[in-house]
Amino acid sequence: MEAEPGFAHSIDQLKAGVGAVDALVAGISHVEAAETVRSVGYGGWPNMIGEMECDGAVMDGTTREVGTVGAVPGTLHVAALAREVMRRLPHVMLTGQGARRFADEIGFNTQDMLFPDSKRVWSKKLDMVLSDEERAAFPDIPLVPLSNVITDPERVRDTTVFLGMDQTGGAGVATSTSGWAWKYPGRLGDSPIPGAGFYADSRFGAVACTHTGEMTMRCNTAHSVIEGLKFGLSLDAAVERAAEDLLDLGTGFLGEVVIHAFDTKNNHRVVSMNGEVPVSYWYWQDGMSAPEKRQSDQL
Ligand code: ASP
């Protein structure tokens, strides 16, 4: 079975001795370009007004340096762009037009990001929920009421998160997503938010979350797992402790959350909360002849 696009590229880079962040970005760039991946990059979904706004991030667990970009228009390779924020600027995060301006300045092409099938599905959804009058005036209509009937986090599955450790023991993480389908313009999920959607610390491990960012941003979930490891919990206990905080939420938008984590003692854990079916993920470690597709635990 062929693994997730780009997974083999990251493995090749790690085998060749490339550092974790570069190896992960090399792989994730293939996911961003793949039309078949319907939650990330070109195959992803637009916001409520039909514009693609992507989020991406990287974190180097050795230096704890971070680069993130959020709600970036017209940009395919947002994880690579986030890496450039980390390397070239005295900042951690750029959003919207500022991120796009930075992309222009360093040679990332503007790209038409709206995949024809995504446009078709978005347009059909608007036809279903808007009156003829609202449809004619769109997008110059109040979007707040529409937000509650149209936003569709269930359409988004498996924001791509790549976690890895390089030959020097450096842990890293990279994320990339188009976020919730039909989200309110400017909405950021957890994928560009350090501590919520991702965290890496080469002393302890690396973590990334997918699905309902509106929950992990309230619980600082990725860092919460690392904090558990720091205070001596096993990986299982650290993940379950972070999951308890999510499961305790009783208000706001509640949905599925998946936590992906590994520690420096050769353990990894992927758990899914509030989901109906386990989530698949790809796993490889040195010594395995090929990556394996595995299933999350359900909490
Ligand atoms: N966590 C992402 C977000 O909130 C979406 C996802 O992973 O499905 O934007």
From TrEMBL:
A cellular component annotation (GO) from this entry: cytoplasm
InterPro entries named among the record's database cross-references: Ntn_hydrolases_N, Peptidase_T2
EC number: 3.5.1.1
UniProt entry tagged with the keyword Hydrolase: yes
Binding-site positions, substrate: R187, L188, G189, D190, T210, H211, T212, G213
Hydrolase is among the record's keywords: yes
Positions of the record's site feature: Cleavage: D158, T159
Keywords: Hydrolase
Domain of life: Bacteria
Location of the active site: T159
Molecular-function annotations in GO: asparaginase activity
UniProt protein name: L-asparaginase
Organism from which the protein derives: Candidatus Rhodobacter oscarellae
